[in-house]
Amino acid sequence: MIDLHVHSEFSVDSQSELEQIAKVAKSKGLKYVGINDHYEMRFGKLKYGFDTKEFLKAIDSTNSDVTLLKGVEWGWDCEGDVPNFDGFDYISLSVHRCDKPINNIEECYRDILERMLQCVEEADFDVLDHFDFVRRYMPNTPPIPNHLRSIVMDILRVISDKGRAVELNTEGFSIFGEPHPPIWILKEIFKMRIPITIGSDAHNLEDIGRDVDKALNLIRDLGFKEVVIFNMRRMEAIEI
After folding, report:
1. How would DSSP label each residue in 156-194?
2. Number of structural domains in the chain
3. CA gyration radius for the chain?
4. CB 3.0-4.6 Å disulfide test: which of 4, 44, 173, 198 passes with 211?
5. pLDDT at 82
6. Which of 163, 169, 162, 91 is nearest to 136 (CA)?
7. Residue 83: is the preceding peptide bond cis (ω within 30°)?
8. CA distances, 107 to each of 100, 119, 130, 152 (Å)
9. How far apart are CA 66 and CA 175, in angstroms?
């Protein structure tokens, strides 16, 4: 149905061409695909990114039988000016910066969650990506410690108050058996009526649409009736 987190050749870590993405997406039965390439800010400066005008032009000129949405995975650490993303369908906020040792579970989780709280309060964005991203790189991929759950709830309250969405990122299924964010957070998202979208975080053609069906089955079981896509920064619901 949808995959709103696919990286193309405009990302520093992907070689997938737009027309190839469209063909593969169609073959996998997807209707909406979000091209969500990296634009990473760090300490107020651009660490890596892409030419946004060329990106928008390239998507408009791509021959596609699926709807290609113009997204950007904006990596931000709450420092520096906000880039101009005029013309994009949606802005995904990703917090990738952790200043603490990755093997110190307590310090690293606290650092990134507190930074995330600040960023969702300050940023203009549409959807928060891979909530517990840092888990991918920790030894034995530990979940968020229970005593830090209050920070998670603070983040969700801000997202709810701002009318933003949260991404269910399917990459976690293949790494540790559940998505980003974990099921307990998805349950809280449902209780708070926060909109949800789905993305595979595909950096190659093979992973487009990865475990999207599994994600849909999971959120249906949790009570969700719809997922969201975006059109020129406007949220649109799709019944599941």
Report:
1. HHHHHHHT-EEEEETHHHHHHSS-BSPHHHHHHHHHTT-
2. 1
3. 17
4. 173
5. 86
6. 169
7. no
8. 6, 18, 19, 15
9. 28
C-alpha distances in Å from residue 50, one per residue of 38, 60, 64, 174: 8, 16, 22, 29
Torsion over CA: 178, 179, 182, 186 (sign)? negative
Residue the block writes with tokens 């737009």: 18
Angstrom CA distances, 44 to 41, 79, 139, 236, stand at: 6, 5, 29, 32
| Cα–Cα distance measured from residue 116 to residue 143, given in angstroms and rounded to the nearest whole number | 16
Residue with the two structure tokens 């880039």:
83
Q: Within the chain, which residues score under 70 in pLDDT? A: none
Both structure tokens of 174: 């293949």
Q: What is the CATH number of the domain that holds 41?
A: 3.20.20.140
Question: What does the block give as tokens for 142?
Answer: 């530990």
| CA 11 – CA 25 distance, rounded (Å) | 18
Domain that holds residue 72: 2-239
pLDDT value of residue 81: 87
In degrees and rounded to multiples of 5, residue 140 shows phi and psi of 65, 15
Taking the C-alpha atoms of residue 131 and residue 120, their distance in angstroms, rounded to an integer, is 11
Helix/strand/coil for 40: strand
Strand pairing partners for 197? 167
Q: Render pLDDT for 105-136 as a digit per residue (tens, 0 to 9).
A: 999 999 999 999 999 999 999 999 998 999 99
Which uninterrupted H or E stretch holds 208?
none
